[in-house]
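hiii, so i know i said id send this last week but things got crazy w the move. better late than never?? heres the sequnce for the chain we talked about at the cafe, plus the structure i predicted for it. fair warning i was half asleep when i ran it
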Amino acid sequence: MKLVIVTGMSGAGKSTAMKMMEDMGYFCVDNLPIIFFEKFVGFFKGVHAPEKSIAVGMDVRSGEDLEDLKVALDHMDAEEIVYEVLFLDASDNVLIKRYKETRRVHPLANGDRIEKGLERERAKIGFLKERADYIIDTSKLLTRELKTELERIFIHDEEYKNMMITVLSFGFKYGIPADSDMVMDVRFLPNPYYDVELRPKTGNDKEIQDFVMKYPEATEFVDKLEDMVKFLIPQYISEGKNQLVISVGCTGGKHRSVTLANELFKRLDCEEREYGIKIEHRDLTKDALRGK
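okay and structure toks below
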């Protein structure tokens, strides 16, 4: 029997993940009363379907009984019953935005602001995050990206990296990304915007890449940034951080920042890495949309 406990913060995508796992062939039960949890597991393990894959959703809706889940998991550990914990998380700002958009009431708010409910929830389910085999931060994930991550783990059986790094290019004139952990300003480099032949192209085009990277300062910048990021990553992982956004900005987010973000991504995207990584270009087409 393959048993996965799906849990996490309310609003982080647990229900969506359960539907995806059902599509993957898992027998899914959401919000199972904890008093029945051990009996449910024992039933499937003992007689019903020892080869079946099962996903059980657990969250703060179980109320005070959530404390009993600690005891149940300790019993399963003692009996060497194998299980995995998938924990879905997101930043408080993102969760608050999702609650406001759906006009839902947080289960632990009790008449207070959503922030208070989230604070209580994190305290109650912290023990599950500590036990988690997989932590997925959905703050910046599209639905299809969440599906890809779950398929990597539960279908392709790939080794999952709890730390997800996003290398993000942007334009300062459109604002600094609010979720940035590190912000790098590359406006010190010569700007291909002033070359009328290069202006329509982007940092994804070889002509722009050649223009930006021909300056020794560009290579030296990426060398130093790569060295610093590779030093910081294991420190962040040891502290339990699971999301790192490295933002690289130029004036419009089309030429220099895109080129250098791509270069940093290539250097960090190595086979031996202990993290997941993706790249985004936030403002790549905004000038074109504005007719500039």
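btw The first helix runs from residue 14 to 23. thought thatd interest u
miss u guys!!
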